[in-house]
Design a protein that fits this description.
alpha/beta; D-Maltodextrin-Binding Protein, domain 2; 10-stranded mixed sheet; 11 helices; 10 strands
């Protein structure tokens, strides 16, 4: 055996030993998740969004084999919660349970402490609640088409209620009025409950509401449904047509709920979260629990969620600009 061959073999062995030693000295990478996950909800406890978020937290924890804790952080239309998550470590252990406030706020508040698209990474939509246009039963119209015709013929004579300036029902109603070319006076309230009370009392004529909160009043005859603001009819109210089929193709007014992570979160962790959401969102048990309240389950991929956010940012900016909406 040549001297060169022996040296070559000795060098190869030493390199292998060095690589092995280096590998052993590196700290082991912990499997995700390796600590409790915080799901930050930008609303107080007790509402519909909080209810859905807590169901999601339970199911997500079971899928991931981890504890998922809901943290309610209301205030400033959801921007406090979004800012907290945007500035959290990008490790997948702090998540935002977002709603359309996430895409409405940039149009109302130009100087947000974060960038809506750049600082938060979409994971998945989870649920949707379509809005329902309802009218006080004394109004002289019974269908969406009749409402539009009456509103056009009587500009500013009708009024509509919302839970406040810049809320989803306000924004979606303004979008609808811009599309049909009608003028109806907006009456903002401090919350959905007083707005509903005045609708029932006939102080206001119409309101964007939801099936969950309007059903009992429709059954009692105090309200009448005009149209549902989704692309398909609801199985809970199959006889109520959609706004889209009533003359506004493509129109939607949806209270969506979805999960975002801090920007920079590893793609593998985003994928893991999305897979977990898909696993439970498609089960009949989870769907049935939400369906009774008019909530539809969704499990869109991150790219589809990102497209929705991008579309709504442009859409709501235009609505706010055309209607000159100011936040409360």
């Amino acid at each position: 055996m040549s001297c060169f061959s022996s040296r070559s073999r000795w060098f190869t062995i030493m390199v292998a030993i060095s690589v092995a030693a280096l590998t052993l000295s590196l700290p082991a990478r912990a499997a995700y998740p390796d600590q409790p996950i915080r799901l930050v909800v930008p609303f107080p406890a007790g509402g519909t969004v909080d209810f859905v978020a807590r169901m999601v937290a339970t199911q997500l924890g079971q899928q991931l084999g981890a504890t998922v804790v809901v943290e309610n952080l209301p205030g400033a239309g959801g921007t406090i919660a979004a800012a907290r998550v945007a500035k959290a470590p990008a490790d997948g252990h702090t998540l935002l349970f977002a709603t359309p406030n996430h895409t409405i706020n940039p149009a109302l508040t130009p100087n947000l402490p974060f960038d809506t698209e750049k600082d938060l990474a979409p994971v998945s939509l989870v649920a949707e609640i379509p809005e329902l246009l309802v009218a006080n039963s004394t109004q002289p119209f019974n269908t969406f088409s009749e409402f539009v015709a009456y509103a056009r013929a009587n500009p500013d004579k009708l009024n509509y209620a919302s839970a406040g300036n810049g809320t989803l029902p306000h924004i979606t109603m303004e979008l609808l009025l811009q599309r049909v070319g009608a003028r109806v006076t907006h009456v903002p309230y401090r919350g959905a409950a007083p707005a509903m009370n005045d609708l029932l009392g006939g102080v206001v004529a119409v309101k964007m509401d939801t099936i969950a909160t309007a059903t009992q009043h429709i059954k009692s005859g105090k309200l009448k449904p005009l149209a549902i603001a989704s692309l398909r009819r609801s199985p809970l109210m199959p006889d109520v047509p959609t706004v889209a089929e009533s003359g506004l193709p493509g129109y939607q007014g949806i209270l969506w709920m979805g999960i975002l992570a801090p920007a920079g979160t590893e793609a593998a962790r985003i994928t893991r979260l999305h897979q977990a959401i898909t696993a439970f969102a498609r089960t009949p048990a989870f769907q049935d629990k939400l369906k009774a309240d008019g909530v539809d389950t969704v499990a869109s991929d991150p790219d589809a969620f990102a497209r929705l956010i991008r579309t709504e940012l442009g859409q709501w900016a235009e609505v706010v600009r055309n209607s000159q909406i100011k936040a409360d």
